[in-house]
Amino acid sequence: MASDWISELAETAKQHDKQHLTREHRRAQEAQVIAVNSQRFWEGLLATVEHDVLRFQREFAQDTKRSLALEKIAPNGFRVFRPVFPGVSLNVQLQPPSEAIEFKYHTGAANGHAKSDWSGTLAIRVDTKGELYLNQYGRDFMTFDEISRMFLERVFKGAFR
User: What is the pTM of this model?
Assistant: First the structure.
C-alpha cells in the first residue's frame, strides 16, 4: 500500500496558505481602519494629556518644581516638561503613515545637555469593535487615561524607567 504523505503534506500547505491569506486580509483591514481613524485618535490622546497637564498645573500652582507644562509641536507632536530645570521632558510624535506613536524622554544636566534618554514606540492597533488602542511589547493601553498616566507620571516623578 502506498503512503499518502504527499496528500498530507499538500493539505498542510493549503491550510497554511489559507491562514496566511486570512492574516494578510485582517492586517489590510486593520491598516485601513487605522488610516481613517488615527488623526481623531491622536486628537483624543492630545486632549487627554492636555487636560491632565492642566490638572497638574492647578494641583501644584504654588509649587512650580512639580508643575508640568505642555507645548504643541506641529503638526502631530507635543512636548511635556517640568518648567523648572533640571527635569525630565517628553517628546511625543504621531508617525506617518499613522501606525505608531513614538516617544522620547530626556533628562537635563546642569550644562543644558541631555544627561540620559529613553525612547519607545507605541503601535496603533484595532480591537474587535474597530476601536483604536496602543500596544507596546504586548502591553495594551486601551484608554487615553492609561496612556496619559504612562507619559506624565514619568515626567512628574523625574524618572523614565
Answer: 0.81
